[in-house]
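Final report, Chapter 2: Outcomes

The project's central promise was a pipeline that accepts a single protein chain and returns its three-dimensional structure in a standardized token representation, suitable for archiving and comparison. That pipeline is now operational. To close this chapter, we reproduce one record exactly as it appears in the project archive, with the input sequence first and the structure output second.
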Amino acid sequence: MARSVACSFFFDNELLGEPGMPAMDACALCAKPLARDSDVFMYRGDTPFCSEECRHEQMHLDAVCAKQAARRQQIFSAETESHRGQRQPRKVSVAS
């Protein structure tokens, strides 16, 4: 009897995915368990969601983050460019 339990346990387990990849057993946004017989809504190829709403919310969050990152990069570039014009050449003494 113990042997059949061990075998069914072994075969019911799915292979583990790559490290850092989302598991396919829960929604990546709300963590709701995903049933094997229900639809799974994917985003970016490997991220599962329980509904179109959760997937859409993640897409919206990603868009907001991308806009913020682009704005930070734009500000950083502008600051770097303005500092470049203000830099004075430094004199470095060289020992003989």
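Archive annotation: The two ends are 87 Å apart (CA to CA).
This record, like all others produced under the grant, will remain available to the consortium after the project formally closes.
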